[in-house]
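INFO  loader      accepted 1 record
INFO  loader      residues=486
INFO  predictor   begin
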Amino acid sequence: MKTRNSFYPYIIYIAVSIVACFVSVAEAQAQDQHSDKLINLNVNQQPFVEILSSIADQTGYKFSYNPQVIDSGKSVSVYLNGKTLDETLQIILPAGVTYKIINQYVIILPKQEAGELSLDDERMLMLNQIPPSQNQNIIIGRSPIDASEKRNETMSELVKNKSVTTPSQFENKNDIPYINIQVFNVDNFHTVEIDYTIDHITLYESESDDLILKEHLRRNDEEYFAWMRQSNGSLQIKSGKRFPWFKNASDIEVYVPKKYKGILKITNINGRIESEMDMELKGLYISTVSGLVSLKSVFTDEIELKSASGKITTNDLEGSITVSSVAGIIKLGNVYGDVKEISNVSALIDVSYIESENIVLKSTVGKINVNHAAGRLYVNTFSGAVNLNDVKGSADISATTSPVTIRFSEMDDDLFVKTYSGRISVVVPRSSSFQLSASSSSGKITTNIDNQLTDNVKMLNQQVGETPKLNVNLITTAGNIELKYP
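INFO  predictor   done
INFO  writer      dumping tokens
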């Protein structure tokens, strides 16, 4: 039989649970009160830690971060009016960095670690007292992720880990000492034009509804800040002073909100243009001289990518598409829509998959390689080799001294290939029926597709299969012709 004392542990457990609930509710209410407060910032080249301190003063939150994640000494210029805590942090934090709110603390940490905070980490933050310091709102040291490795390390010990970054330590954009942040309401414009010269531009998806520009600058000089103008529904962002040539290249981050569906135009000379986001726009126009262009997925009404000698790479393109280069490699993943033209003068065109009613590929001396194609191909080249695999559709190919290889998995319309001295190799499905016309003045024609066809001749004009509805015309002057089944 249980005594009255045996119920004490249960009573204590229930009492503690009730108190914990009240504490949790109080903390949640306090957090809601903090998060409702709007933030105003008008800062010109102030240390990042001062901006966090201002946010802490306005909201009541305290900040904790690892100096290896955030350079508290970086000078920042930013103007914000009436933004929530979430909106403000999404604007000022660098790419790859996020935050987690635990009670009255804002923990700043790398995005890949955001999901790793354990209950023990949260308890550590709640149980350890903040040590006396000049700024009670900022805790600089190892993040809770790091601290979980050593549970007995208190907050006062963490503060000792503060480090100072000097200009000689700069290795990447996160180490560049100055940052200029500009925020724009995308509801005010339908076109964004970005124009730089030697800087590296990276596009990210904005976590807020604002378009955000972050310039990582090596000089604290307003002449180096971007020049901006908004008029007639257009936002123009133009590079500030860059002198001497090639010695003051900056890293430019542009955060584009998902809600923006207008036109984006980017011009650069020597700097890279890269995208870490999937874009759905009305139009995308990118032009560079020698800088790399690297995009993920782009879905727009119209896409135009141009380069003189810089490489162009994409994952997915969909829309009305024009891609051109003089001497830079063009390497495309999946291409859908209306392919107006993909052209190069002296470098490779390489496409993984392309699907369009009409596909126009042009080259002078650069090789053309397509792994999979669906549609009618129009190919023109002088001496660049043409290699088309897994073609579902038809083709019209004109070359001078180029070897041409085309392998059909399905053929639904006429094939025409003409070259002067290049070899022609065509593979057709076994079910194909067509009228063949092939000629080579000084080369020879070989085939294995029909026992009735004569091998090793200069000219063939014969029917292949029953009731042919298609025409296959293969013409060369000095090259050989090979026509075969897979």
